[in-house]
Amino acid sequence: MESSFEVFEKTKDRPLHEQVREHLRTQCLNAQPDVALPPLRQMSESLGVNHLTISRALRDLEAEGLLRVVPGKGTFVAKTEPSHQAIEMVTLHTNLQDLLDTSRHTFKGMQDGLTEGFSLAGSTLMVPPVPRADTFLQGLKARQVAAVAFFGFGYLSYPNSFLEAQFIHEVAEQVPVVLIGKEHSLLKLDCVYCDPAPQMRTFLEECFEQGMRRFEYLGANDNQPHLKHRLWAFQEFLLSHSLFWKYPTENSNPTSEIHQLLDAEPEVIVVSTPYKAHQLVVEAQQRGLKLGHDLQILCFTGSLEEVRAIASYVTVIVLEEEEVGRCAVHRLSKLLEGSDKPSPISRRVPGKLVRQDAAKSKDAL
Q1: Total-model pTM
Q2: Angle between the 321-337 and 97-113 helix axes, to the nearest 10 degrees?
Q3: CA distance 53 to 244
Q4: Are residues 41 and 102 in the same domain?
Q5: Which residues on neighbouring strands pair with residue 259, listed in sequence order?
Q6: Buried b vs exposed e over 143-179: b needs ≥16 C-beta within 10 Å?
């Protein structure tokens, strides 16, 4: 194992500690259990890497269970458990906080949904450009990952979007894959996603039956796929009732956007994100509007905890993202067991509608 350190080559496309970690992971997977690693100083000299970087990589591998530290004796390759098949969640592309929060909830659901014989290898963040599929598959093999849940796809523009789809397709030819998100137009693969549109439609129809006719949407410029779907569902409701969306859609200033929206004196506002909902509630209160009477607000969130400060003023659709994670890992487990047919399925997980009055209850929080 010591001599293999000499073949390590640094590149500029990834953080150094990740390169060291992947290199050491490969060495550990190819080594016999209980083999001792060289002293840290020797490893640093062999790899030509600062000992702090190596220490960070070793801590990651210890957390994954590939290494075990024996105080006073050293670091050893851990015994692997061949009966476990590892599943990994890969976030393809995001620098957006709300999507990262979504991935966190989904990953927790995957952890909770694991059954005996399966383990979660971890969560990998992959930023553009996507790697070569053969390189990625080699990494999966080195990490002993048997199946992948892809999260965060569909955010790239052409031609990167095509390269992304091609990459996923090539990976899916070699290992079981489940997409976490809406179905991909270019791929016929298993898909699990949270769809809050029916709950939003229920809320809007109730408002319409109560005589409300002025509906607006805050977040028109959102170019994220999951936010676009919410906007499209809102527009379908308006069309079905021959209503018009009066608010202008082009405004890059969030504060001005809210001011203009409230100047139109809407009765109902659908808000795309919790952050914008907070801004809207504050401005509406400053104008003296009675929320729930003068103005109905609907927003989306991964958990009521995220909107605790405004939960008593708005109706919320809680996105069951943890359930999405549980469904994804269940499907991958079945595919690995061979107990489910490989034909693509699409599983929609509905949201949970928590009305404004219910949100006032401490039990709801």
Answers
A1: 0.70
A2: 50
A3: 58
A4: no
A5: none
A6: bbbbbbbbbbbbbbeeeebeebbebbbebbeebbbbb
Cα–Cα distances in angstroms (integers) from residue 103 to residues 98, 127, 302, in the given order: 9, 15, 10
Amino acid at 190: D
Instruction: Please state, in angstroms and rounded to a whole number, the distance separating the CA atoms of residues 298 and 258.
Output: 15
Q: Which helix (H) or strand (E) holds 91?
A: strand 85-91
Which tokens in the block code for residue 350? 């509905």
* Amino acid at the residue 29: L
Look up residue 46 and give its two tokens. Answer: 């062999």
Contacts of 258 (CB under 8 A, 6+ apart): 218, 276, 279, 280, 283
Tell me the residue range of the domain where 130 lies.
Answer: 85-194+322-349
How many of the other CB atoms lie within 10 Å of CB of 78?
17
98 burial via Cβ count (<10 Å: 0-12, 13-18, 19+): buried
List the end-to-end C-alpha distance of the chain, in Å, as a whole number.
53
Residues 314, 203: one domain? Answer: yes
DSSP assignment letter at 245: -
Amino acid at position 266, single letter: P
Q: Number of structural domains, the chain?
A: 3
CATH number at residue 93: 3.40.50.2300
- 175 and 221 assigned to the same domain: no
Per-residue pLDDT of the chain (365 residues; tens, 9 = 90+): 544 444 567 777 678 888 888 888 777 777 777 888 888 888 888 888 888 998 988 888 888 778 888 888 889 888 655 457 899 999 876 555 556 778 888 999 999 999 888 998 888 777 777 888 998 898 888 888 999 999 988 777 788 888 889 999 999 999 999 999 877 878 889 999 999 999 999 999 999 999 999 999 998 666 677 788 888 999 999 999 999 876 555 555 667 888 888 998 999 999 988 888 999 999 999 999 999 999 999 999 888 888 888 989 999 999 999 999 999 999 999 999 887 666 788 999 999 999 886 545 444 43
